[in-house]
Structures are given as structure tokens and as C-alpha cells.
Amino acid sequence: MQKPTAPRFPEALLRERVDARLAEAGASAESRAAAVKAMLHASLVGVDSHGVRLTGHYCRMLEGGRLNRQPDIKVDRRGAGSAMVDGDDGLGHYAAYKAVEMGMELAREAGIGAVGVKNSSHLGAAGAYALAGAEQGFVTFATTNTDSMVALFDGAQKFHGTNPLAFAAPVPGTRPWLLDMATSSIPLNRVLLHRSLDSELPEGVAATPEGVPTTDPHVADMLLPLGGVDYGYKGAALAGVATLFSALLTGTTLDPDFIPMYGTDDISTPRNMGHFVLVIDPDKFAGRAAFGAAITQYLFSLRTSPARPGGRVMAPGDREWAEMEERRANGIPVDPDSAAFLGL
Prior knowledge:
The protein has helices spanning about 10-25, 30-45, 55-65, 90-110, 125-135, 190-195, 230-250, 290-305, 320-330, 335-340; strands at about 10, 75-80, 80-85, 110-120, 140-145, 150, 160, 165-170, 175-180, 205, 220-225, 275-280, 330-335. With about 350 residues, the chain is of the alpha+beta class. It is globular, with a radius of gyration of 20 Å. It has a domain at about 75-285: Malate/L-lactate/L-sulpholactate dehydrogenase, NADPH binding domain (Ribosomal Protein S8, Chain: A, domain 1). The two termini are about 25 Å apart. Pfam families: Ldh_2.
């Protein structure tokens, strides 16, 4: 039996309600502006698990003391093309956008800007930060590691987080090329979203506490790495790439050592999450004009490549931009729990 679809609401109304709830929880104007921007990006492009549905969680963490309501972010330049951002335990969106800003500043001078983030928290969809650089003309990579919830390949317990890898690149005259992928088959927030909607999970993406694959979101406790039962070694290894950049290079928390994002009574202790952003200025390589011409030709060739019967060839970002247009026209779906929290 098909479950009812979630009700839809205008983008402007959601921005207003999310900002209001974060303000009630005490978030500073700067940090909540960053959080609203990142959450609405996710909701607009169809990454509902990291969109406005997280407002309630962030508000609880602000009220409980895990998140600093008035963070004082500091930037420490460590080299010609490197820097560290201290997020002061505030909302991770604020620190991550600051890292992109610093990365662009470094890249304008050195060609590349590699920026680590420490003392941060959950940042939502990593693609929001890769996109922020690409919209300003930079090739941008963003990643973070998270608390253990994904089995290793052939593993029988949680080890890595969902550990996203996001890349974006500017394309002349149109929206950026954008890839934002978890290294797990799905993010944990997708499981929670399915619980709220009481809808089944796809096959091969989650398992019970005993490691048995399941489609029931109410008993799912562990995620499977990208590639599932047969090819999960690829996703498990890529998850380690996120940990390498965002935890090992920044000196922050390893996946198994995090205070869990959910399911703990401790909502007052900061989690010291690390993130990593790499920003590249095309002008310091082939040149912006040459890069723009090349990526335009590349995408034309990709999109006109023959498709199998019934299929459609798309570039990374094509689905997201189409979804954004549809949702701006018809409203953004919001699950019932989140709609109630936002007073919708």
C-alpha cells in the first residue's frame, strides 16, 4: 500500500519558519543565516534528509548546550594556501561557509585554498559548501566525517560515518556541475525520514543491530556502505577518504569516538567535528576561459551520449536543478513531524 505524500510548502514560508525557530533557540543571526541557507539548499534539491527536517534537532542541541548559540569563529592562516577555522562549537553550517570564504581568498592568491575546520558540528548537506565556491567561479571540494553508523565491507558493527564527498565546478552561463554523495548507501537521516513517513527503505541499504539487511526503517540500526553487500568495499574505502581529510588532517574526532548525533542523553557536550574544504582557482591552471570552454564541451558530449532504451544520460547536478525548479514551482515537501515543529 502506497503511503500518502508529504504536504508541500512555499520556500519563502519555510525560510521564515526555520529562521524563527532557530532564533527562538538562541542562535546568532550569522549562524542561523548559514544554517537556513544550507538547509533550504538541501530541501530544494531533494536531499530532504538534510533539509528543513533538521531544524528541530538543531534547536534541541542549541537549547541543551551542545551547540554554542553565539560562536566566535576564528581563522588561522597556516601557509600560502592553507588555513584552519575554529568553529567555536557553533552550528556547523556557519563554520563550513566560513571555510569556503577563506578557501576562495587563499585560492585567489595561491591557486588553491585548503581549509580545515575544528570544533564544529553537523553541517547538513556537504554539497551546499561545494556549491558556494562554484557559484563564485571556483572548483570546490567539501567533506566531513561523522559518527559511526555504517558497517565496513564484511563488517559486523558500525565503524565509519556516512562521510559525504561533495564536488562542484562552475559552468559558464548555467548552474554548476555538482556531485554530493554519501559514502554509505543512504544517510541515517534518510532512515529517520522513512520512519516519520512510515515507508519502507530500499533493498540493501540498511541492517538490523545484528547486521541482517532490512527494509523496515523502524528496526534499521546500521547502514551499509555504498555498493551494498557485494561491492561495499568501494564505499567503505571512500568513507576513509573523508576521515583522512576532515579528522586526521584537522586533529579532530574519529568516527568511532563521536558522541552520537542521535540516541544519547548527552546534548550538552560539544562533538568537535572536523570538516575540510579545498578550493581551486581555474585562473591559476589552464585559465578561467579555457576551463569554461572545456567543461561546456565536456558536458555537451556527456549529455548527448547515447542512452540505453528508456534511460536518460545526465550530468551530476542535472537531477538536482530539475528538482529545484519543480519544488520552487510546486512547494517543498515536509514530513509531518517537521511540519508540526515548524507550526505549518
